Amino acid sequence: MTVPATEEGKGEPAEPIELPATETVQRALHEATGHLYDELAVGRQDADAEGEQLPADVFDALEALYVATAEESVTSVRISYERE
Question: What distances in angstroms separate CA 69 from CA 5, 24, 77, 83, one per listed residue?
Fold first, then answer.
């Protein structure tokens, strides 16, 4: 696993984290993706009441990742994020 070295508070984008697409990684991603989907769905109800929504394609993409990791058909995994 590659963890990027960034200085906190610089606002610079971090390098992506690349993970091997092993059975263990896919199982962990499957469980984490399911949990993330559930939490966002619950939060979506609150956001609907406040007039804010996540785009439907976010849920579609999470569902596709959930299915792919269940089937262990993922060939590469890259997570990227930006810090403020």
Answer: 28, 10, 10, 27
Residue type, 36: L
Residue type, 30: H
- Give, in order, the Cα–Cα distances in Å from 71 to each of 2, 30, 47, 50, 79: 25, 10, 32, 37, 20
pLDDT tens digit sequence for 34-72: 999 999 988 877 766 666 778 889 999 999 999 999 999
Tokens describing residue 34: 């399911």
pLDDT interval class at 9 (50, 70, 90): very low
Amino acid at 20: P
State whether the Cα torsion 74-25-77-34 is positive or negative.
positive
